[in-house]
């Protein structure tokens, strides 16, 4: 077998936002329907279908309804555990957040590339995760100032702070408070980006190793394929964990706003 | 040493942080499992804290990965 050109590996290409249709102009700038928007809509549509199938409110739930009730019950119990009985009214927001992130993560993992359709992971862009994080952060601020008025600032002085630490603790607490939306959005975005770069790089091993000839290449290619299956399973786990962590941290931040600390 | 080479070395150095975070994440889950096996009844109630610890350890690793990839793409 002749030595082929080494494959051009461009793991960042999958994150390129491509315009699909021109919608309208605002102030001389075009607003486009992009692949990111399309895949977010697909995630939203799938989520809508999933919820619609489970909202029949049958007394004896079928499998689908059990799946939906499993998710709602999971988030509802997380809210009661972290915030207390007052947390129930924030359940719809946290639930939508969790389910949308979960669906967007998983939709980006579906191997539709076999059929020439390339799913786009909307959550691998800081513009998306950052907006979600700002949404969570502003809800925390609004709830905090609504409930406690200016007393909300006591968040920066934890109970039992010694007087001599008073000039030190509030600035640290303030910085750690202001860094929350960044860490929230950054975590999801970097985890998804890193996961997809990893998948791209490892999947290139399967094809590139075949250049080494049938004797050496095929076993390596098969081993890479097995590794790839494992990595994909790991990425599915990460997709779930990141959605859960986003919802969990948002509920903890809400707890600070509702109960102070 | 030209600037591009230095950037690439810096990118590699930053990636060490991702490995360090791996130790941290292993520590979080390892300690949880160790104590969960000692007292399985209390384990379920601590799952939220487990994931908070995991998220904190992971974030730092992801940050170093971010720095590494930014430097790598710059070179």
Oligomer: heterodimer
Number of helices of chain B: 3
Task: Let me know the average pLDDT of chain B.
Answer: 90
Compute the number of strand runs of chain B: 0
Structural class of chain A: mainly alpha
CATH fold category name of chain B: F1FO ATP Synthase
Low-confidence stretches of chain A: none
Mean pLDDT of chain A: 89
Number of helices of chain A: 7
Strand residue content of chain A: 5-15%
Polypeptide structure, described:
The complex is a heterodimer of chains A (261) and B (75). Chain A is mostly helical. Chain A has one domain (13-259). Helices cover 64% and strands 5% of the residues of chain A. A two-stranded antiparallel sheet of chain A has the order 1-2. By secondary structure, chain B is mostly helical. Helix content of chain B is 91%, strand content 0%. The longest helix of chain B is centred in the N-terminal third of the chain and has 36 residues, at 3-38. Chain B has one domain (3-74): Up-down Bundle (F1FO ATP Synthase). Chain B is rod-shaped. Chain B has three helices and no strands.
Layout of strands and helices, then pairs:
The complex is a heterodimer of chains A (261) and B (75).
Chain A: E1 19-26, E2 29-34, H1 35-54, H2 63-83, H3 91-107, H4 126-148, H5 169-178, H6 180-208, H7 214-259
Antiparallel strand pairs in A: 1-2
Helix pairs in contact in A: 1-2, 1-3, 2-3, 2-7, 3-7, 4-6, 4-7, 6-7
Chain B: H1 3-38, H2 40-43, H3 47-74
Entry keywords:
heterodimer, A: 261 residues, mainly alpha, two-stranded antiparallel ribbon, 64% helix, B: 75 residues, F1FO ATP Synthase, 3 helices, 91% helix, 0% strand, rod-shaped
